[in-house]
Amino acid sequence: MSRICILGGGFGGLYTALELSRQPWPEPPQITLVDRQERFVFAPLLYELLTGEMEDWEVAPRFQNLLSPESVQFVQGSVTAIDPKARRVTLGEGQSLDYDGLVLALGGETPLDRVPGAAEYAFPFRTLADAQRLRTHLKHLEAREPAQPIRLAIAGAGASGVELACKLADRLGSRGQIRLIELGSHILSGFAESSRGAAQQALQERGIQVELRTQVLRIEAVDEKRKNDLALHVRRIDSEAMASDPVDAVLWTVGTQMSGVIRALDLPKTEQGRLQVFPTLQIPSFPTVFALGDVAAVVDADGQSVPATAQAAFQQASYCAWNLWAALTQERPLLPFRYWSLGEMLSLGVDTAVLSALGGFTLTGPLGYLARRAAYLVRMPTLEHQLKVGWNWISRPLWEGLLPR
Questions:
Q1: Quick one: which of 133, 266, 365, 375 is 20 to 30 A from 353 by CA?
Q2: pLDDT (0 to 100) of residue 227
Q3: How far apart are CA 245 and CA 211, in angstroms?
Q4: How would you list the strands of the sheet with 88-91, edge to edge?
């Protein structure tokens, strides 16, 4: 019986596990999925938790509810070491897992050590715990008496920063004073002009202050007894002048770094620390070790560099599962990964979004919101979860309409 170990339960890891369990194995393998958290996070919908548009269980279902223990065993634990030569994974709890096939899908982490004070005071936004922590802090700020403006600064104007800014502006309304700070010369670098234009309009309509070519220098507490009263020090790239502005919270969406266990691996990596892989997603010199998602630098069969996005990881999972099955059974040839860009989707506030598809087709506003929701619903990991979430989306407005105001 083959033993397969999958490290990381994000889009790449979880969907690979599900696809592997459906392959025509001569003998069912022992598939083990390892993740630090007990829940899978559908990251593109994490923003909806801040506005109450979705509930925690919809965005972050438990792995135990998504996986059949007969086909995939889930182990909650932290990976501390990987030995490709010995084919062994060590967990922080002292447990070790031997494998015949390995999938590295540990994802990235938000680097908070590049700016003084960020680790102590900034809010990252990547996990369910991050969303819950920020939600709790917002409730604290909203409950202050007398009511005061809520001053938020968001570092990074990529997709995460823009979506956060719009959602928070809609939640806070007239009390929100939101700054979006970007080191580059424009927001949403790498996105289509249609997406960028819709985002710029959404930011402007919500009164969000966009500060381009601006560097965050440090974050510090004005008063150690009042952790939410912060001083944010920034500098314009084209000016020597520096500014220090008071804020109630700093949200950090800048950058991605590999986990310590990936950095410690003696395997070929890019300058950014991502693992180099063949188009089949195999690690060089280890034909039954595969990597995908944020940790892998993938150049597909057509020679294009694959972006580190949820869309790419979702597509890679099918190839990874097939190729690992083919490598272990030797019944079929391995397939080089081919990436198909299906367009871009951004949430731009409550009940509004932009969807830019191939061929220049764009939907914005409520229609974009509905299209985005439908696209994500069909990508949720299991049919059972799709049905539960879909029914909740239909029934919740009906129940809320019947409740007395």
A1: 133
A2: 57
A3: 13
A4: 79-83, 88-91, 96-98
Q: What is the pLDDT of residue 224?
A: 63
Residue whose C-alpha is closest to residue 160's, from 197, 191, 133: 191
| Cα 7 from Cα 256, distance rounded (Å) | 18
Residue 348 in domain: yes
**pLDDT tens digit sequence for 207-252:** 999 999 999 999 999 876 655 689 999 999 887 767 888 999 999 9
Q: Looking at the structure, tell me whether residues 197 and 263 fall in a common domain.
A: no
0.70 exceeded by pTM: yes
Are residue 122 and residue 246 in the same domain, yes or no? Answer: yes
Is 275 within 8 Å of 93 (Cβ atoms)?
no
146: domain range? 118-252
CB 294 within 8 A of CB 256: yes
Number of other CB atoms surrounding residue 280 within 10 Å: 21
CA distance 394 to 130: 28
Amino acid letter for position 221: A
| Separation of alpha carbons 111 and 389, rounded Å | 32
Name the domain count of the chain.
Answer: 3
> Is the CB of residue 222 less than 8 Å from the CB of residue 372?
no
Helical packing angle, 11-20 and 310-329, nearest 10°: 40
Query: For 147, left (φ over 0), alpha (ψ -120 to 50), or beta?
Result: beta
127 and 239 share one domain: yes
The CA-atom distances, in angstroms, between 42 and each of 46, 47, 202, 298, 310 are 7, 10, 24, 22, 9
Tokens for 261, please give them.
């266990």
Shared-domain flag, residues 203 and 232 = yes
Whether 287 and 226 map to the same domain: the answer is no
98-134 exposure pattern, b = at least 16 Cβ within 10 A, e = fewer: ebbbbbbbbbbbbbbeebebbeebbbbbbbbebbeeb
**CATH number (domain holding residue 247):** 3.50.50.60
pLDDT on residue 331? 86
State mean pLDDT over 90-96: 89
Report the alpha-carbon distance of residue 369 to residue 352 in Å, rounded.
5
- 180, 202 contact by CB (below 8 A): no
